[in-house]
Amino acid sequence: MQANIVPDTSLSELTQAHATLKRSFRSGKLRDISYRKLQLAQLAYLLQDNYIAFQESLARDFGKHPLEANIGETGVVFERTLDAINNLDKWLASEDLSHETNPMFSGFKPTLFKQSRGPVMIIGPFNAPILLTLQPLMGAIAAGCPAIIKPSDLTIHTSSLIHTLVHKYLDSDCYRVVMGGVEQVTALLQLKWSSICYTGGAQVGKIVALAAAKQMTHVTLELGGKCPVILDSNVDIDTAARRILWGKMINAGQVCISPDYVLTPRHIQDKFITSLKKAWNEFFPDGALKSPDTGGIINDRHFYRVLSMLQHTKGEIVIGGNADVKRRKLEVTVVKDVQPGDSLLDDEIFGPILAVVPVSDVDEALEYIEGNPEPLAVYVFSQDEAFKTKVRENTISGSLIYNDTFFQLNVAQLPVTGIGASGYGYQGGKYAFETFIHQRPSMDVPVEAEPHLSIRYPPYTQTTYDV
Ligand code: NAD
User: Cβ(199) to ligand 1 under 6 A?
Assistant: First the structure.
């Protein structure tokens, strides 16, 4: 199925959609767990029936390889949606805390109810347009929240397909897709939401957070940044190089947790480059430009932004460097001897360039990371437990992965989360559900308890409250 391009949603349509969602929430139909399970099942069918159409749309938008479309997007949401259906009763069960409290309170039914927050908004980026809209949508459905999704305006084929299919498979009174960009997001931000889940760049993240603050709206910000790799000399360098290069080539480096630069002991820099070359030749026997496994850069603006970073580097290009302007494709490229202050160390690269930064020791690496905004992920390659612990204790980042890159996204039980400059809140699997749930504390104090409570009323007769 190839969806027609869906035009931008008008502002009046968008306001009407918001009103419909609010009405549906008030109607109480989303409180019914079997309704939620049915919508989740519909979401699973949407993904199962149309994964090939999604592969095609992603290829059309920016040349994403079908395997990456499947194992990185539709497959992940499909699997986690089934997981949500199977676990929803457990996830929604209220928690009786009477056995954990002070015995004085156990008779007062201390309970956490799992309550839907209300209508929510989901804003997605271009680089994984299915995963980063439909996974939060899965969470919203499971949590009983009606949702508006605003997918990226840069992936017009995939966003149009999402629009068409969500309205075809799901209840349009509760789940709507808004097409468009700045104008639509600006208008959506004027409306009152119970929660906003935003995934994208930090600049827009700030706009979203400021608008949400004006309405006291709960927000999840999944942002980007520069994810460093720290390489120890006590390492299997061929394996490390292969895993780092793989993490870099996925989606042509357009992934929030892509390894951005490698802090490498100076004395092993050349050995590391040799291992990277070996891996590069294995991955791309006919060259990276000819390889069908690497995609293109999303649009001209980003393509020339990435090329400009490369043109201005004072480092030495040692692998790749060639570009195909027509297909907006750049070879997976490695630059060595990159120094602090270099064009490659300014902003998130978000393209297929790996900067290798030589350092004297781990302390210099840690100091460099500490002097920069908190990354979404820190990667450490080492066989030395003391080295690994030292990095863990002396860095702050959303996640911390030892001896691999990128793979954390495949583990549903591990949340995707940032800290500081890389965002806040948790996403992925059950966390996508929890984001949209209010854990509502409750007690029910029986009249019969009154004699035991008299001590709390004035006039006070005691100075301590001994039980
Ligand atoms: P972006 O910030 O340009 O766009 C994200 C969304 O915001 C899009 O839907 C877009 O239409 C909308 N938007 C753009 N400009 C806007 C404006 N001025 N006002 C209101 N809305 C606006 O991000 P992108 O380029 O699509 O995505 C790349 C970024 O997302 C990278 O920084 C990457 O690291 C980050 N990202 C983070 C995660 C994560 O889980 N932490 C995952 C994927 C991508």
Answer: yes
Dist CA 378 CA 387 (whole Å):
14
Instruction: Name the nearest CA neighbour of 132 among 171, 158, 106, 109.
Output: 158
Q: pLDDT digits over 324-340, tens only?
A: 999 999 999 999 999 99
**Best mutation site among 160, 204, 297 for ligand 1, i.e. most ligand atoms within 8 A of its Cβ?**
204
The tokens describing 372, both together, are: 């920069």
Q: Which two tokens stand for residue 111?
A: 């309970």
Decide: helix, strand or coil at residue 78: helix
Please state the ipTM of this predicted complex: 0.98
Preceding peptide of 340 cis, ω within 30°: no
Q: How many helices (H) and strands (E) in the chain?
A: 16, 20
Residue holding tokens 């939060």? Answer: 136
Cβ atoms within 10 Å, residue 83: 18
The separation between CA 265 and the C-alpha centre of its own chain, rounded to angstroms, equals 31
CB 201 within 8 A of CB 195: no
Taking alpha carbons only, the member of 194, 215, 188 closest to residue 10 is: 188
CB 116 within 8 A of CB 145: yes
351 ligand 1 Cβ < 6 A: no
pLDDT in tens, 416-449: 999 999 999 999 999 999 999 999 999 999 999 9
Helix runs in 250-286, H state only: 269-283
Q: Is the distance from CB of 208 to CB of 246 less than 8 angstroms?
A: no
